[in-house]
Amino acid sequence: xxxxxxxxxxxxxxxxxxxxxxxxxxxxxxxxxxxxxxxxxxxxxxxxxxxxxxxxxxxxxxxxxxxxxxxxxxxxxxxxxxxxxxxxxxxxxxxxxxxxxxxxxxxxxxxxxxxxxxxxxxxxxxxxxxxxxxxxxxxxxxxxxxxxxxxxxxxxxxxxxxxxxxxxxxxxxxxxxxxxxxxxxxxxxxxxxxxxxxxxxxxxxxxxxxxxxxxxxxxxxxxxxxxxxxxxxxxxxxxxxxxxxxxxxxxxxxxxxxxxxxxxxxxxxxxxxxxxxxxxxxxxxxxxxxxxxxxxxxxxxxxxxxxxxxxxxxxxxxxxxxxxxxxxxxxxxxxxxxxxxxxxxxxxxxxxxxxxxxxxxxxxxxxxxxxxxxxxxxxxxxxxxxxxxxxxxxxxxxxxxxxxxxxxxxxxxxxxxxxxxxxxxxxxxxxxxxxxxxxxxxxxxxxxxxx
Length: 451
Ligand SMILES: *Cc1c(COP(=O)(O)O)cnc(C)c1O
Prior knowledge:
- This protein is of the alpha/beta class.
- The protein has helices spanning about 40-45, 50-60, 70-75, 85-90, 115-125, 140-150, 160-165, 170-175, 190-200, 205-220, 230-250, 265-280, 300, 345-350, 365-375, 385-400, 420-425, 440-445, and strands at about 5, 15-20, 65, 80-85, 95-100, 130-135, 155-160, 180-185, 225, 260, 290-295, 305-310, 320-325, 355-360, 405-410.
- It has a domain at about 5-10 and about 65-110 and about 235-445: Rossmann fold, CATH 3.40.50.1100.
- Helix 2 crosses helix 11 (about 230-250) and helix 9 packs antiparallel against helix 10 (about 205-220).
- The longest helix has 21 residues, at about 230-250.
- It binds pyridoxal-5'-phosphate (PLP).
- Pyridoxal-5'-phosphate binds near residues 266, 267, 269 and 382.
């Protein structure tokens, strides 16, 4: 076996997803109805989500079986490789061992199909004809488009306008899979028209695009909504990453001291971390978890833990999460997938319980780390993934300073082949560091709903 790479055979693909809710020392806070602000019922959610996904959202069962039809598709690119970053270790001259799980080998180039495929599957099974969703940088829209084409579903994607204009190739990919892609805010929904009336030049946000997609799903019997991050069932589907990594590290004869991931909505982070955290909570080995977010969208490090809406029009249920306020419109910096105002309730909960750390890193350091990684390992990380790389490098340098040979595992959640404009801008010195100003955060947070 190649000493740099740890690959599992096809039949080692997990048969079950791991549900952290079974092992949490304190149960997750309840989800509230946006109108009544009372605990939400499955019937309230039925117009939006497939029934099976609603069940998974609140399940406390530890292992949930992956349907065979879903496994058959995941097998096309899973198990994904785990690499030992020996050349990066050497470049950093660190005594630490660095491993990375490589999720960029999926057809759309990121971890997102891990949940797009089961979401499409359950909707198809329940007789749904069409999926409405949103996308920021385009990773989710292209993954959902792919999954819909595999299950013969129509797919309508509201794409944040600034990305729609900046990333024509992501849009082309969605269209190649047969999806319809609309720049958001648009005049096709009431929420979109309302935003455009107030601000005709609005470049959009995930919160706005979600409102448009949710509106379409709520108003059409044959249409359901899908979300690519944040929700419990999405994090559940992403646990294939961590479960595989556990087996691969066992092959390597190692165990992580620290696990690093980038957090936009929290799904790839939860996916790699939660199986390890579950083992720790059941009396297994200790492990430190480190979430890395952009300084320009500091949800975990500067946001509040509070009940908030998932979208700008306040159509979604209220969830307890770290948030910058649903009216948050991020600065136009490049890590498109990390620009959401909220954070997965499960990742927020785990942080509150002291089971995870969080750190914000500026984008210039992230790009510098991404380039250092590309030079050593050959892979161009997605701008989002450079945050995980930067976090792992910081940890490796800390180990060097402290003379510790810790084992670091990080998730390389996607490739940057569609994001080369960001690398061009970086090289031309056009990118700037941006700290979201305290006053702007205070302003956005003052609008939080009272419950
Ligand atoms: C969508 C995306 C993210 C952010 O989403 P999470 O739910 O936090 O994982 C990060 N990296 C890539 C490559 C993405 O496509």
